[in-house]
C-alpha cells in the first residue's frame, strides 16, 4: 500500500507513538510504502524545533536532524504533481495532496480535520491514523 503522511502524523509517530507510530513501523517492516516530497521534509525540519516539542525530544533522547534523516531514509521522495488550482484553504494541505497524486498513493493520513473533511482526493482516501492502521492491517491479512 502506497501512503502519504501529513507532517502532523509524522511528528506524532516519532514523538508520541500510538497509531501514527504503528504506521511508521509498518513502513519499516515493509508492509507499506511511504512517500513524501522535499517540501514536506523541509516542513518537518521546520516544525520539529518548535518549543512545544522540546521536552518530548529530550525525553525521547532524539534530535531533530535524526528524526528528519530517519524519515527521509524511510520515505520515497517524489516531485509533487501540479494541481489545477487550490483544493484546500491551506497551501500545506495542497502540498500533501499533490504529493499523494504524484506518488499514486492509495491513502493519505492526516490529523488535520480540514484535510480529512475532503474525505478523498482523486479517489485517494484521506483518513485518520486509526482508520489508516485498520486499512493497513486489513490489507496485510488479505495478502
How is this fold's topology laid out?
Blueprint: E1 2-5, H1 7-15, H2 18-28, E2 33-36, H3 38-47, H4 51-60, H5 64-74, E3 76-77, H6 91-102, E4 107-109, H7 113-116, E5 120-121, E6 124-127, H8 129-142
Parallel strand pairs: 1-2, 1-4, 2-3, 4-6
Antiparallel strand pairs: 5-6
Written description of the protein model:
The protein is α/β, with parallel strands linked by helices. The protein has a single domain, classed as 5'-nuclease (Rossmann fold), CATH 3.40.50. The chain is 57% helix and 13% strand. The protein has eight helices and six strands, in the order βααβαααβαβαββα. It has helices at 7-15, 18-28, 38-47, 51-60, 64-74, 91-102, 113-116, 129-142, and strands at 2-5, 33-36, 76-77, 107-109, 120-121, 124-127. Strands 3-2-1-4-6-5 form a six-stranded mixed beta sheet, sandwiched between helices. Helix 1 (7-15) packs across helix 3 and helix 2 (18-28) packs parallel to helix 8.
Amino acid at each position: 500500500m502506497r501512503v502519504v503522511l501529513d507532517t502532523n502524523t509524522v511528528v506524532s509517530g516519532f514523538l508520541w507513538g500510538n497509531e501514527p507510530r504503528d504506521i511508521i513501523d509498518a513502513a519499516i517492516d515493509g508492509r507499506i510504502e511511504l512517500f513524501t516530497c522535499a517540501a514536506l521534509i523541509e516542513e518537518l525540519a521546520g516544525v520539529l524545533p518548535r518549543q512545544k516539542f522540546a521536552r518530548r525530544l529530550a525525553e525521547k533522547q532524539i534530535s531533530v536532524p535524526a528524526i528528519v534523516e530517519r524519515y527521509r531514509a524511510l520515505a520515497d521522495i517524489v516531485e509533487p504533481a501540479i494541481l489545477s488550482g487550490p483544493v484546500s484553504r491551506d497551501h500545506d494541505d495542497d502540498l500533501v495532496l499533490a504529493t499523494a497524486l504524484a506518488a499514486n498513493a492509495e491513502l493519505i493520513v492526516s490529523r488535520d480535520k480540514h484535510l480529512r473533511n475532503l474525505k478523498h482526493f482523486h479517489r485517494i482516501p484521506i483518513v485518520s491514523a486509526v482508520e489508516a492502521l485498520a486499512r493497513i492491517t486489513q490489507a496485510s491479512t488479505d495478502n
